[in-house]
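Q: I'm a student working through a structural biology exercise. My instructor gave each of us a protein and asked us to get a predicted structure, then write a short paragraph describing it. Mine is Asparagine--tRNA ligase. I'm not confident about reading structure output yet, so if you can add a plain explanation after the tokens, that would really help. Here is the sequence I was given:
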Amino acid sequence: MSQKKRTKIKDILQLAEANVTVTVKGWVRTKRENKNVVFINLNDGSTINNLQIVGDPTKFDEATLKKITTGASLSVVGLLVASQGSGQKFELQADTIDVLGVADPEKFPLQPKKHSLEFLREIAHLRPRTNTFSAILRVRHSMIFAVHKFFHEKGFFNIHTPIITASDAEGAGEMFRVTTLDLDKLPKTEDGKVDFKEDFFEREANLTVSGQLEGELTALALSEIYTFGPTFRAENSNTTRHLAEFWMIEPEMAFYDLEDNMDLAEEMLKYLVTYALENCQEDLAFLEQRAKDEESTKKQEERSELSLLERLRFVADNEFVRLTYTEAIDILRNSNYNKKKKFQYLIDAWGADLQSEHERYLVEKHFKKPVILINYPKEIKSFYMKQNDDGKTVAAMDILFPGIGEIVGGSQREENYDKLTNRMKELDMDAESMWWFLDTRRFGTVPHSGFGLGFERLMLFVTGMSNIRDVIPFPRTPGNAEF
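A: Happy to help. First, here is the predicted structure for Asparagine--tRNA ligase. I'll explain a few features afterward.
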């Protein structure tokens, strides 16, 4: 091992034996000293664990020692030895310490004390240096890798769908506009409307709300594809579950019916959760303890019955229960929660749009297993979903998880041209502008299905965090586009 080349702390802690000279570089978490010894906890982000640096104060000049404060960055060369203290395998006896960058303790906001998550959101550029957020970001990387690994191993092709688009896949209309027009001098048509012919794309354009429609186009050529990209919703919602910019995993599969779709989604979720359990153990152990500490501040009735790791194993080890929306409505309507008015939104009649509280009741109280709901009323679902023979429902599916509610939404897609165009007319949609999408139903249409997994929803579940703004590096929410 080269003395000059940096060795990551993660690799050092995995060495079989000590007594080697190494160079480490990282940021100071804590420092304490007395006349005989200085102790520095150093972290380089490669692991949740710090490496303790031990030095003889007389070997270093006073000016250097004064610069070693929380947040400062160091390069340390020394001998790795078995640790004398408990809780750590090795420590580094420092021969040389170079201060790469100082951090004025009067101004550096991340001093070694507990900080609120709200405060850390205000300094999102620095929060990756905390244990909580470094753990979340490492888990996030592992989940990104696991998504690609899962689909690659199943023979799917990753497709980049456009970020700038003229379509609104969800029909919700909550889109961010993209334009190069001068907003102070907008060109107008004769009837006083904005003349988008003068704009860059010569038409209205927006940031994508979903890659699904374009994903369907490629699935109807390559059979099995998936997208994994950013999506945008201009929804003025300040909740713990909404972001204006988030990442979506959207597989689309030709020749899949609803049953095939459910099988794939369940297999994928179990694969991802199992991957996290097997490959993120130290970070998950830290996040589990963090979640337990947070739970202890809640009222007894608000506490989760399962710890973080128990929730993850709950998904990995249980078969998902499958039932229809109609069956779910009957269960909810007849539940004690509904009869005693414990639900905020009471279930009265068939056709109700289920809320998170209803979804969590089915998973956590009634079945005590993950749940897949199918065959929703067509009025509360999107235009592209396959219409069932009953004329009332569509072949939709939602997967419900403990603590989260809906984590996956999907459906078999309507492949019949006439049924699809009639549904678009019912919803007063402009079929002419969707000619390219409808072409797939004109030329060689096939049964096909797909679903969407909001990546940050998955991250909430895997990390045990309660606010979606804390599982993405730089959250975009109403009034917040800093950093």
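A: Here are two points you could use in your paragraph. The longest strand covers residues 20-33. DSSP finds 14 helices and 15 strands in the chain. It's a good idea to check both against the output above yourself.
Q: Great, thank you!
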